[in-house]
């Protein structure tokens, strides 16, 4: 009996034969597909069948790429937003600075025009800081004795009287504003030339005209200007405007409240006027001599 090889050990065609067969089939399919489009329908069917597998294979990478692009774009947008916000803040600061410089330039031109309107010398000064005492209305300016500043000189801004030089140092001077409690300015009503004196009531407080009869010819809205009779302030400088007049039957005097016309708390540059006049000494009141007692006869 002839022995046969078990099926498990049976071998097909040799590998070389298989290679030749499959090579011929591949070449035939390539040539047929190139000339006759034989595999188009097969390719379509296979692509439809394999599309879910392709989607499953590529979608995780697409999701990762999209997520990475999103966060990268988000970071770029946040950085761009911060940069634009910073640029906007810088532009706003520059615009505010330019506006402040324009206002300051306008004020300086107005002071220069005001300075030219006076026949006597005057000096432009800059405010350094407020006085140390919060209960007084004082300013420290950047000109002193070396610049020719002297006590008693009037200080004005573009609108009206601010105050008076009361103390000088070599490089600085102290100005007592018209709102100070210790400051008084001889004024007159511009409408009827009525002379009086206006007093300060303290920092950030109005001014007051005192010791005037209830029937005095002063009205609300009247403009008070310097009378010039003290030799310190030139006549005609704006000082205040009457806000209200309180007339009480129980008081012998009217209370006249006024608002300063100068921007006493909003200026940076001021003008010091050298307009003090040398006045003759105040006349001495003669001392009355006591009458001699008549001797009786």
TrEMBL record:
Keyword entries, A-Z: Cell shape
Annotated Pfam families: MreC
GO biological process annotation, one example: regulation of cell shape
Domain Rod shape-determining protein MreC beta-barrel core: 128-273
GO cellular component: plasma membrane
The UniProt record lists the keyword RNA-binding: no
Signal peptide range in chain numbering: none
Keyword Ribosomal protein: no
PANTHER family linked to this entry: CELL SHAPE-DETERMINING PROTEIN MREC
Family membership noted in the UniProt record: Belongs to the MreC family.
Role description: Involved in formation and maintenance of cell shape.
Protein name: Cell shape-determining protein MreC
Encoding gene (name): mreC
């Amino acid at each position: 009996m002839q022995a046969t090889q078990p099926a498990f050990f049976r071998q097909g065609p040799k590998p070389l034969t298989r290679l030749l067969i499959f090579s011929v089939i591949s070449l035939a399919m390539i040539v047929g597909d190139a000339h006759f489009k034989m595999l188009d329908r097969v390719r379509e069917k296979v692509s439809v069948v394999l599309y879910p597998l392709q989607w499953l294979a590529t979608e995780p990478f697409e999701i990762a790429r999209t997520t990475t692009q999103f966060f990268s774009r988000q970071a770029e947008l946040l950085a761009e937003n911060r940069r634009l916000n910073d640029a906007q803040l810088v532009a706003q600061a520059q615009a505010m600075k330019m506006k402040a410089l324009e206002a300051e330039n306008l004020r300086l031109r107005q002071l220069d025009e005001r300075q030219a309107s006076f026949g006597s010398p005057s000096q432009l000064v800059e405010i350094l800081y407020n006085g140390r005492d919060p209960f007084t209305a004082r300013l420290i300016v950047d000109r002193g004795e070396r610049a020719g500043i002297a006590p008693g000189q009037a200080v004005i801004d573009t609108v009206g009287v601010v105050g008076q030089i009361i103390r000088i140092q070599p490089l600085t001077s102290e100005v007592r504003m018209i709102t100070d409690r210790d400051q008084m300015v001889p004024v007159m009503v511009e409408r009827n030339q009525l002379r009086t004196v206006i007093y300060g009531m303290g920092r950030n407080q109005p001014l007051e005209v005192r010791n005037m009869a209830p029937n005095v010819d002063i009205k609300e809205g009247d403009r008070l200007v310097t009378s010039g009779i003290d030799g310190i302030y030139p006549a005609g400088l704006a000082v205040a405007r009457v806000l209200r007049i309180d007339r009480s039957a129980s008081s012998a005097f009217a209370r006249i409240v006024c608002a300063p016309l100068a921007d006493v708390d909003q200026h940076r540059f001021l003008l010091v006027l050298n307009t003090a006049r040398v006045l003759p000494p105040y006349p001495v009141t003669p001392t009355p001599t006591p009458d001699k007692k008549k001797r009786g006869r």
